[in-house]
Each structure stands twice: as C-alpha cells, then as structure tokens.
Amino acid sequence: MERPAWAPRSIDVTVPSVSRMYDYYLGGSHNFEVDRQAARRAMEFMPGLPKIMQANRAFMRRAVRFAAAEGITQFLDIGSGIPTFGNVHEVAQEADPDARVMYVDHDPVAVAHSQAVLEGNDGADILAADLRKPWEILNSPEVSRLIDLNRPVALLLVAILHFVEDTDNPYAAVTELREALAPGSMLVLTHASYDGVPLPPERAGGAVDVYQNIRNPLIMRTRDEIARFFEGYDMVEPGLVPMPQWRPDTAPEDEDPYAFSGFAGVGRTA
What we know:
7-stranded mixed β-sheet
C-alpha cells in the first residue's frame, strides 16, 4: 500500500493501531486504510464510538482548564495519541503561556506527528515511551527538561488505561507515577466500561472483540475497578462520573447517549 509522506519508515502500515483508529473516529487524517477498516468493524457493533471519543476530548479540555485555574502549570499526558485540534498544550498555554506540557506515547505516528506540531514550542515536547514502564518516563531527560517533579503536575491518563491488561499491572504503574508527584498534583483519568453504554453488553462486546483481534485488547473495567486508580488521591467534585457529567459546559441531557459510556474523574494529592 501507499505510504504517506508523514508516516515514519519504521511503522508497519498493515497492522491497525489504536491511536490511529482514535484519530479516525475524531475525523483526523493520520490513519491508514487498515485502521479505518478496524474502526468501521468496531462501529458496526458500537456506532457511537466517535461520540465516546469526542466526549473524552471534551472532558480532557475541561479538566486541563480546571487544573490551570487551580494554579497547575505542568502537564504530563501519557498515552497522548495523535494531536488534534484543542490538544493539551493549546488549552494549557492559552490559560498560561508559560505552561509546560510533556506528551508521552509509544505509537510512532503519534510521536512523529507530535514532533511536527510542537516544532518551535519550547514549552511542549513528546517522548516515545510506554505507560507500563513509568520509571523510563520519570527518569527521561525530556521529562527532566520540562517538568519539575518537586512542583504540582497534572498527570493525564485519558483513554489509555483500558489498553493495559491486568497482567501488566496498571495499578502499580499508576501508583509509581503518583508517588513521584509533588503534593497538590492531579490525576485526570477516563476509562472505558460497559456501564453507561446504551447497548446490551454482548453487542458492545463485539466492538471489544475487534480490539482483541488486532492484538490491542480493550479491558472494560467496572466503576469500582476504575475508582481503585485514584487510591491516594482526594476526588475533586463531582467524583468519578460519566464524562458529560464532570463539570459540564453545556447541559448533559443534550449529549448523545453514547457519551455516557465509561467514567471520568480528577483526583488531587494531599
């Protein structure tokens, strides 16, 4: 197949990637036919997947504005994906031009495109690394250059933990990250769940199977399992809720029913 100019030589364009599927759901252009095919297969079971992704992005922007209003000027976004309009650095640096944003992703397309988008922005950078190896992120020269871990940081784990299987111990990774953060830091998190999906679980399970088949299992966790990621944090009001219900800008009842799939929350370290 044709390899676009923006695609790094190292990537296999015959294998779907979750970050490029996400880009497709959001109407982006940094995806391949193999990603679009997998995304369309998932949408056969859950046609509202793009609405879920849009709700994720909208929550992320509200949470970044909230953190900035609370005086946080440093943002560590792990599993940041392919940058689209209204990304973390745009929202944070609009609130405070001196805000610093460190993106982290292991998808080569996400990394390459982020590098292009961030060129000339001294307050933002991208690191190729994996959430499952927090010590590599925390000890990287890129993070050290931008982020002072002795001052509060907003840690964003938006739509990423549901791609980490229990065997890879996501709770330990989140704990390790929390322990590295200064008091007054925040955790901004969303996670997929069968709770709130306006479909029977067996039908939604068809979409989950698509991710399983492309070797990127989607782990649907319960509200209680998601709440465990916030151990050691005090929850910010209104707590762990469906995405449209977290400090909404518009009436949640006007939202698409799919936007209520899964949970979002913000916690603060004491």
